Amino acid sequence: MMDQAQSLRNLMSSKTVQAPKSEPRSAKFITITSGKGGVGKSNFTLNFALALQRLGRKVLVFDADIGMANIDVLMGVRSKFNLSHLLSGEKQINEIIEKGAGSLPYIAGGSGLTSLFSLSDKDLIYFTDQIQKVATDMDYILFDTGAGLSKETLQFIMSADECIVVTTPEPTSITDAYALIKVVHGMEEDVSFKLVVNRAESEKEAVQTSDKIRLVTSRFLNLEIPLLGFVSDDSHVSQSVKKQVPFSIYSPGCIASKDIQNLAQRYMVAPNASPEGTLTGIKGFMQKWLKRTK
């Protein structure tokens, strides 16, 4: 029986998905994760996506947190469809993409995520084809993964173009962030990391927190990880969670909202940033995905 890698090679060379001489653009795939839960990862993902959207970029959020999917809850919306409706063949991908706060497109994970990691060859080809349909129309696809070192989270991290690790100044959060980076780097050295410090009392504390992680990754892993930015500890954030409204919409003038917008702008113009769509894109994402499911 044809293995999944061969199936994908056939898919990518078939006439139905063969690229023309001018390779079509593809979204940049970014995983957002954390070493432990409770650091505000999903809230960061949501507001980072909205900030990129305000800068004129097309962004899709994919809730990839198995068992703890809550992007829709943070936006105060109820999802009619999720990934399971796509994988079962009930819906096409454009039909399960819903609009949340700020008209932000997102895909709810739900129970469908568990079956995503054990697809048959036929279903995997179908999934790839569906993802390709939206990847060519987006600038960024953000995967809000589960916290920690689950098999599923690791697979998303090692398949994407880039991984943003969210931490807080708390010692346990710093330790767990380093542990995650260490494990991932040990399995796949080519993963590109960036750090975000959430709930920082000041820029100085954010830099100090980042330096603690960067020092050990440089010394023990020979890995340089840039600090992308930070989000201040702001009471408006917890208020917005209770109201189920993203803080950048709930209080656009608050310090956390200014921080997230500055962070998004910095991401767009960072000297080492690759333009959206120029890294692995959908083909590379699925090829690396298959490498982890063989």
TrEMBL record:
<feature type="compositionally biased region" description="Polar residues">
    <location>
        <begin position="1"/>
        <end position="19"/>
    </location>
</feature>
<dbReference type="GO" id="GO:0005829">
    <property type="term" value="C:cytosol"/>
</dbReference>
<keyword id="KW-0067">ATP-binding</keyword>
<dbReference type="InterPro" id="IPR050625">
    <property type="entry name" value="ParA/MinD_ATPase"/>
</dbReference>
<dbReference type="Pfam" id="PF13614">
    <property type="entry name" value="AAA_31"/>
</dbReference>
<dbReference type="InterPro" id="IPR033875">
    <property type="entry name" value="FlhG"/>
</dbReference>
<dbReference type="InterPro" id="IPR025669">
    <property type="entry name" value="AAA_dom"/>
</dbReference>
<dbReference type="GO" id="GO:0005524">
    <property type="term" value="F:ATP binding"/>
</dbReference>
<dbReference type="InterPro" id="IPR025501">
    <property type="entry name" value="MinD_FleN"/>
</dbReference>
<dbReference type="InterPro" id="IPR027417">
    <property type="entry name" value="P-loop_NTPase"/>
</dbReference>
<dbReference type="GO" id="GO:0051782">
    <property type="term" value="P:negative regulation of cell division"/>
</dbReference>
<dbReference type="GO" id="GO:0016887">
    <property type="term" value="F:ATP hydrolysis activity"/>
</dbReference>
<feature type="region of interest" description="Disordered">
    <location>
        <begin position="1"/>
        <end position="22"/>
    </location>
</feature>
<protein>
    <submittedName>
        <fullName>Iron-sulfur cluster carrier protein</fullName>
    </submittedName>
</protein>
<dbReference type="GO" id="GO:0009898">
    <property type="term" value="C:cytoplasmic side of plasma membrane"/>
</dbReference>
<feature type="domain" description="AAA">
    <location>
        <begin position="28"/>
        <end position="191"/>
    </location>
</feature>
<keyword id="KW-0547">Nucleotide-binding</keyword>
